[in-house]
Design a protein that fits this description.
CATH architecture of chain A: 3-Layer(aba) Sandwich
Oligomer: heterodimer
Strand content of chain A: 15-25%
Order of helices and strands of chain A: HEEEHEEHEHHHEHEHEE
Largest interface: A-B, 29 and 26 residues
Shape of chain A: globular
Shape of chain B: elongated
Structural class of chain B: alpha+beta
Helix content of chain A: 25-40%
Strand order of the largest sheet of chain A: 6-7-8-3-9-10
CATH superfamily of chain A: P-loop containing nucleotide triphosphate hydrolases
Strand content of chain B: 15-25%
Number of domains of chain A: 1
Order of helices and strands of chain B: HHEHHEEHEHEHEEEHEHEHHHHH
CATH class of chain A: Alpha Beta
Strand order of the largest sheet of chain B: 2-3-8-5-7-6
Radius of gyration of chain B: 34 Å
Largest sheet of chain A: 6 strands, mixed
CATH topology of chain A: Rossmann fold
Number of domains of chain B: 2
Number of strands of chain A: 10
């Protein structure tokens, strides 16, 4: 606990501040402790990878960070607000304003165009859809899809679909861009493109959290948090983590990428 | 809380869902279509029937009344012989002079007599004895010549009125005024031609040959105890009830009926028949309402079923919408709106089909339902019931959708 307190105080201006977070699921008579007092702080404009094997609690943590679920115990301050005790309606609003989700399988609405898909969060935004078209077009432009706005998902490649999903995620200028295995369904060349896009957004000031089990993906981040058994196993800058071997100059394989400053 | 964009996209989504699953939506809405169509068709037929019946009553006159002899129920025949209960001319006179709510009154006695013109003889034409006020009571006036006057009545003049059918049947010239005919062996001068009204009263046709003579003359040409009735008009249909009481009062006094004594006559007003018909029509409308209730129930179950299918098909979409900030209320409203839209589309098609059926009814030869139409209230009610069905039966699936856990929903295959 002493270590957790020092970590938290060292990042007092943290965007995400998670303390002693626990989550207990009851499946039938069995009780599963998915998180066992996890502490984590993420600062503004960080780019963090969260890693861990299945059962480590990484999905549960992502759901907590994304305000999709409430913890059993502990606290979660997002942007200074305690979101761990909010009701479903309030959480929905927080998700709408503070969180941008990117999923492994894109989750685009198949019958709607790229533009309409990107506009979706504005449907549920508090202020309404003022200037929505311009904002959606700007978001699509940021992810490099300005020429594909009227295409439907089935007319787009996997990489383009994920770009649409990213445009949708950044539309409301969220505090966190939360990506869950964003390259899990993409080939390696497209993976590189998408990760470059994340780095570009990060460079423009976006806080990015990527949940992944691939070291190569993690190597694009500044910091790697590894979980095990519902607790933080290690929390290191990428160069000191084992994922760092994929960094340019460290690994010959990754040398071709170049310019990765993470 | 929910912005206009939400409503816009929810409505367009509802329609695009229906459009994307056209045949499924159609089959689902079939229950509602059939229910609404059959009910609106029944109401249309009823409206047509009602219009027709009321027109016929109207042609008779809504403020009209009749006085005729009536034996008390279960009374032995010999206790009330006809001579004792028959309506007498004095009674008609009393009604005329004493009833303030009566605008016009006439006794009518009908007798079958042989009528002769030249060598043309017709046996047993119905000849009616009437007062001059008969024109007002029957709303039938002379088109040529003059009507009867009180002088004709008082002096028992042998004058008559005929209608155009009688002119044809008796081979009279087209302007028969001042011609004379033999009625029951007596010579009568034709003074006027009465208009022939096509007043069909439930198929009864009164447009055959008619001849009218003054009541006083007709009375003389019959037995002492001839049959007559009294017909009259109240000053307005609104006073029909009070007027009936007034006539009853005069009749009781004329017959010396003591309080609590039995009446040997009956005063009937058209008004009451209209009430009875309206009650009948209301009853049929209520039955039609029951039909729509049952069919909407059946249709509603179909709607619920298809909405549950839709929720389960679109679980991932619901998860995504929740992830990007849709509140449970927003999800609930969206699915509810979809169910309501589906029902309203069904209701719309149902009304269109019902209208077509109503149009078909007007074309049935002989049915005389040419005024069959769906009244606006029935259209409004059909939409309201359809929407209500959507809300009631869409609620359960919508609540189910709104309560989906976004994590589970996004994991759903």
């Amino acid at each position: 606990m002493a270590e957790a307190a020092s970590t938290a105080s060292s990042r007092s201006a943290a965007l995400i501040e998670v303390r002693a977070l626990t989550k207990i699921y009851k499946v039938g008579v069995e009780t599963i402790h998915a998180l066992r007092g996890l502490d984590l702080a993420i600062g503004r404009n960080e780019m963090v990878a969260i890693m861990g094997s299945s059962g480590s609690g990484k999905s549960t943590l992502m759901n907590m960070l994304g305000c999709l679920d409430r913890p059993t115990g502990g606290s979660y301050l997002l942007n200074g607000r305690d979101v761990s005790r909010m009701g479903a309606g309030e959480l929905a609003q927080v998700r709408n304003e503070e969180i941008g989700f990117v999923f492994q399988s894109f989750e685009l609405l198949p019958r709607q165009t790229a533009l309409e898909n990107v506009e979706l969060p504005l449907v549920y935004a508090k202020g309404g859809g003022r200037g929505r078209r311009a904002r959606a077009l700007a978001a699509l432009d940021r992810v490099g899809l300005a020429s594909r706005v009227h295409h439907r998902p089935n007319q787009l490649s996997g990489g383009q679909r994920q770009r649409v999903a990213i445009a949708r995620a950044i539309l409301n200028k969220p505090s966190i861009l939360l990506a869950d295995e964003p390259t899990g369904n993409l080939d390696s060349a497209t993976t590189t493109e998408i990760l470059a896009l994340f780095r570009q957004l990060h460079a423009e000031g976006q806080t990015v959290v990527i949940v992944t089990h691939e070291d190569e993906v993690a190597s694009h981040c500044q910091r790697v948090v590894r979980l095990r058994d519902g607790r933080v196993l290690s929390d290191l800058p990428v160069a000191q983590d084992s994922a760092g071997r994929h960094l340019p100059g460290v690994s010959a394989l990754a040398g071709a990428k170049g310019g990765a400053e993470c | 809380m929910l912005n206009p964009l939400f409503w816009l996209q929810a409505i367009s989504l509802a329609f695009s869902q229906i459009w994307a699953n056209k045949s499924r939506a159609f089959l689902t809405a079939l229950g509602i279509i059939v229910g609404v169509a059959s009910t609106t068709a029944v109401i249309a037929a009823l409206t047509g029937l009602r219009a027709r019946v009321l027109t016929e009553f109207e042609s008779v006159g809504a403020s009209k009344f009749f006085v005729f002899p009536d034996r008390p129920d279960n009374a032995p025949r010999n206790l009330y012989p006809f001579e004792k209960i028959r309506v007498r001319p004095e009674e008609a006179l009393a009604i005329k002079e004493e009833c303030t709510l009566v605008k016009a009154v006439t006794p009518i006695t009908e007798v079958g007599l042989d009528v002769q013109q030249g060598d043309k003889i017709i046996d047993g034409i119905t000849v009616a004895g009437i007062w001059p006020d008969w024109h007002v009571v029957q709303n039938r006036f002379v088109v040529e010549g003059r009507p009867f006057t009180q002088i004709d009545e008082d002096r028992e003049r042998q004058v008559c009125l005929i209608n155009s059918d009688a002119i044809t049947e008796l081979n009279l010239p087209s302007n028969p005024i001042s011609e004379s005919i033999l009625i029951g062996g007596r010579r009568f001068a034709i003074v006027g031609v009465v208009e022939t009204t096509q007043a069909r009263f439930f198929g009864m046709n009164t447009s055959s040959a008619e001849i009218f003579i003054p009541f006083s003359v007709a009375a003389k040409m019959q037995d002492r105890n001839f049959f007559m009735r009294v017909e009259g008009l109240f000053t307005s249909p609104d006073v029909a009830e009070d007027g009936q009481e007034e006539v009853r009062f005069v009749m009781r006094r004329m017959r010396g009926v003591l309080p609590g004594g039995v009446e040997t006559f009956n005063v009937a007003a058209i008004d009451r028949f209209i009430e009875q018909f309206k009650a009948l029509a209301a009853g049929i409308t209520a039955i039609a309402g029951g039909i729509v209730g049952i069919s909407l129930l059946v249709g509603g179950i179909g709607i619920m079923n298809i909405m549950l299918v839709s929720v389960s098909e679109r679980t991932r979409e619901i998860g995504l919408r929740k992830a990007v900030g849709a509140t449970p209320m927003a999800i609930l409203l969206q699915f509810l709106l979809e169910a309501v839209t589906l029902c309203l589309v069904g209701g719309f098609i149902g009304i269109a089909v019902g209208r077509l059926a109503a149009f078909g009814l007007t074309k049935i030869p002989g049915a005389q339902l040419d005024q069959a139409d769906i009244p606006l209230w029935a259209v409004a009610l059909s939409f309201a019931f359809s929407a209500a069905t959507g809300v009631v039966f869409g609620m359960f699936p919508a609540i189910k959708a709104s309560r989906l856990d976004p994590i589970e929903a996004l994991r759903h295959e």
